[in-house]
Amino acid sequence: MKLTVNGEAYEARQAESVAALLEEMGIGGRAVVVVLNDEVIPASTRSTCGLREGDCVDLFRLVGGG
Amino acid sequence: MKRQGKIRDEWIVGGHRFSSRLLMGTGKFQDAETMAGAVLASGTQIVTVALRRVGRIPQEDDMLGPLQQLGGITLMPNTSGARNASEAIRAARLGRDLSGSPFVKVEIHPNPHHLMPDPIETFEAARVLAAEGFVVMPYMPADPVLAKRLEDVGCASLMPLGSAIGSGHGLATAEMLRLILRDARIPVIVDAGLRSPSEAAAALEMGCDAVLVNSAVAASGDPIAMAAAFAQAVEAGRTAHRAGLMPRGGGAALATSPLTAFLSVEGP
Predict the structure, then answer these.
(1) pTM for the whole thing?
(2) 3-state SS assignment for residue B171
(3) Which domain holds residue B179?
């Protein structure tokens, strides 16, 4: 399934949900906020929130900054 | 005479009470361990963090973990990277989701050469976010007119720059800061430009409520020791402000010791 993740083309192997995509990308356990097609997906609905061909996913986290 | 105990000297921002008057940024540190050590040594209670997209291969240190282990730290996500108000508002909402904190440092500096805050976009973002219930802490030019406007739209504090971000030029805006302090009814925090602890002390002596430092600590020879030095300087400056500086002399010197000519032979 072709997705756009953080502005780049991404070929998801088997991710059918947001939670599965995070697992596939190796960031399942990290504190990230997920924005799917400009809408924030709460952590509680990640495993039930399905992905469709062409979806845009943006993932953000907190880093050091001043 | 009885020795005075330490007086409780707290300050309140957006309804939240703090005793440390040193805010710390967490950027530019060599590693998360040094950052956490400096935060601990500084005694700070408010630290800034930034929002970034997750890289394809996550490799940066986890910043949140070490900070959360310290306890007693309020996170203040910034909106760095936003070029206008709408990007800053979006970043603020994402930062709140990630940090669970209502604090936001509104930071909009579109020109990478000088990183000066855009007053118009900053005002607009602050207005919207304050109405949404954020504790809005705007990084702003040291402009007393803008300061009043930001206060009027519900900002929790004012964070005027001492000099350009990361420049280490100290309190270049001192005269403007005095004008801001004269009229402000919310805390004034000098954010950006400080290099040495003596500059932080000077800001507190002048009447600023707090200072925010990052590069001054992170880019110093020994960040943990420097964080401790800033903590002491901020405390000294605040104590001096409360004590009240002596009046300046009118140009002539005033002796501190009696000037009686005790060496000359006194008459019978």
Answers:
(1) 0.89
(2) coil
(3) 11-243
